[in-house]
Design brief:
Blueprint (H helix, E strand, L loop, with lengths): L7 E2 L6 E2 L8 H7 L4 H15 L2 H9 L26 H4 L9
Antiparallel strand pairs: 1-2
Length: 101
């Protein structure tokens, strides 16, 4: 069963292999294909949109590869200072005590 496929050179990296198809691995197969400009533009726009999310920024900070000009503070939300709950009485609907929550 080990000699199921004949030995051949990979079309991309010229490495000898005995696997099915002309490539030694999926990476070589992906590298050898041509990508159209439309697909390339779509991939670029998806990557740009993702890099603007808080998750991507946090990951980039963790890996020390953050984008120049973008910080986590760009996504921070201001928390209002509450001084008196009577200002929010329309939202409380009678829940002025903890037992009623």
């Amino acid at each position: 069963m080990t000699d199921r496929y004949k030995e051949k050179n990979c079309k991309f990296c010229e490495k000898l292999h005995k696997k099915r198809g002309p490539y030694c691995c999926q990476g070589c197969a992906n590298s050898d294909r041509e990508v159209s400009d439309k697909v390339r533009d779509n991939m670029r726009s998806v990557a740009i949109d993702y890099n603007r999310t808080p998750e991507a920024i946090a990951k980039q900070k963790q890996l020390h590869t953050s984008l120049v000009g973008m910080t986590v503070e760009d996504f921070a939300v201001d928390i209002p200072e509450v001084r008196d709950l009577s200002d929010y009485s329309e939202f409380l609907d009678g829940f002025d005590r903890g037992e009623k929550w």
